[in-house]
Amino acid sequence: MRPFYLLLKLSLNISFRLFYKRFLVLNKHKELFGSTIYVSNHPNSFMDPILIGSLNRPIVHFMTRSDVFVWWLKPILWSAHMLPIFRQQDGTDTKGKNTDVFNKVNSSLRKGRNILIFGEGFTDDIPIRGLKPVKKGPIRMGFGALESINWSKNIYISGIGISYTDRNTMGSEFVLDNGPKICLNDYKQSYLENPSKVINEVTRIVEKNMQDCIVYVAKPARYSLLEGIMQITRKGYNNLNHDDHIPLLKRWNYSKQLATWINQNVTDESTEILALQKDLDAYFNLEKRMKVQDRFVLAKKEPELVSTLNNWLYLILIWPFAIVGFIHGFIPYIISKKVTEKIMKRRVFWGSVKMMMAQIIGSIYNVPIIVLVTKWYLPHWSLGILYYFLIPVLWRLSYEYAHQFKEIQIKRKMKSVDLSKFAEKRAELEKRINELIPVA
Fold this sequence. Notes:
Blueprint: H1 3-19, E1 22-26, E2 36-40, H2 47-55, E3 60-65, H3 74-79, E4 82-85, H4 94-110, E5 114-118, H5 137-148, E6 156-164, E7 173-183, H6 188-193, H7 195-212, H8 223-233, H9 248-265, H10 271-290, H11 294-297, H12 309-343, H13 350-377, H14 381-414, H15 420-436
Helix pairs in contact: 1-2, 4-5, 8-10, 10-15, 12-13, 12-14, 13-14
């Protein structure tokens, strides 16, 4: 393991705990090294590799699109265990360049190292609750490595699934699920007889395992049906509308079960359910246009959703820490936000880039502040070091402080709005869901 990779693994592990409200890593593989090709879905661009590399135990080398490897970044990317993969749109002689890369992959697998590759190939701009067809490249890579070492060592392949409640929002949640390992050596005889058939077969198995690791809706046209039902029942994996008292794992399993039911039961002839989907879409689109959050529609039934008591308690109790966090974190936050949104045209990159950039800028920005504070106010330098490592926590408190203040303003404003028509429509939708969807 290269030192920079270790540093990232440790520091980002902490960053995730501050960026996300909660998360789960399921079915962890225990081996640091295991000659395994991990194939993951790719819902969140830069966030996915750093998340898998930091939170999973196995040490991995990342297959990364080659256009990222500009000259000044190459040493950093090499230190972070990244290997380029060349695509047709990257220019001429991609086959020759990839041959060199695959030789390095073969060598890594022979030495017991692990490879991480994203089987979908790219990230969608619009979030999906699905999985695009998994490419055959990872399976070909595994069998190619076995051929290069004359089948003398076991090489494995494993699917990974990541499900976010909202991929770019601080305070959201995710579940990372690791699928079972498949030993490619078990297919030796069949592969020698018919390589194409076996590659297709193993690709289908890995794809199915990946589907089992996420909240998976087979048809994109049904994404909004799942999302609408989850929001009305508040039992599912929607970031804005869910019951926070329900454990994350239970909400994730509920959403998977609901998605499976939709896959198995909803067809183009399911007129009542399709009419329900249309009405759900209309209801939530109207809320969006009117700038109404669904929790305010539930205010009479669940008044705690609009109570400001907890918000005021937070403001009263946390303000000293929030001020300190603001001093240390505001400038790095603003710089990372402005720069990211200016240079990154695709919003899918924003969450991960902002988090990484704020971490780097904040680490540098706060060194002279801590030196001065230690010199003038603290009795020993060790307290200054401790203070330095507490800065991310203080900044997170200040960020939450601003959020709680905004919450009070929103709740005050919404108290004067008549939402009775929304409440009637919501009650009707809830009744139809309970009648038509047995797993809801």
